[in-house]
Write a structure and sequence with these properties.
Elements: E1 5-7, H1 8-15, H2 19-27, E2 34-36, E3 39-43, H3 44-68, E4 73-81, H4 85-100, E5 109-116, E6 121-129, H5 130-147
Antiparallel strand pairs: 1-3, 2-3, 4-6, 5-6
Helix pairs in contact: 1-2, 4-5
């Protein structure tokens, strides 16, 4: 049985990771550790298991990335009329709510919004899978149609 214990700084040096990241792994329970005095110590066995799990996770991520290369990613820009900052904020909050409530199967996505006061509009840029973009465009359509008389 391995009786070697490593400090957070030693692990950080070995793995070329910032010590705060190691502390976060310990705090989140990803890296088992014991408190000895005022500092955390990780057994050689636990460190070995952690690095093996990290390698397996990395290999899974690479496989997922390779399988997702054939997925279509799209970007779209929409200009939405907004008379003032309050209306622009309401529009952006509704879009953020839709973005945050999306199902995981829609994949990675991002949204950037800005209020162009001089032009009286909110410019929204969407990026993600085709399915995500289609859903967000449908939401935008419903949002803007609801505002028209």
């Amino acid at each position: 049985m391995d009786k070697t214990y490593y400090t957070v700084d030693q692990i950080a040096d070995l793995l070329h990771i910032h010590p705060k990241t190691i502390q976060r792994y310990i705090r989140e329970g990803k890296l088992p550790a014991r408190k000895i005095g005022k500092s955390w110590r990780v057994s050689g066995h636990d460190l070995s298991r952690f690095t093996e799990n990290a390698k397996a996770s990395s290999a899974r991520a690479e496989n997922e990335a390779a399988s997702s290369k054939d997925r279509v990613l799209v970007s779209a820009v929409a200009d939405i009329p907004a008379e003032d900052r309050e209306e622009a904020t309401r529009v952006v909050n509704q879009l953020n709510a839709a973005l945050n409530g999306k199902p995981p199967e829609y994949g990675r996505s991002a949204m950037h919004a800005q209020f162009l006061e001089a032009e009286g509009k909110v410019r929204v840029t969407l990026w993600g899978t085709a399915r995500f973009a289609a859903e967000m465009m449908g939401f935008l359509s419903a949002l803007t149609e609801g505002e028209e008389p």
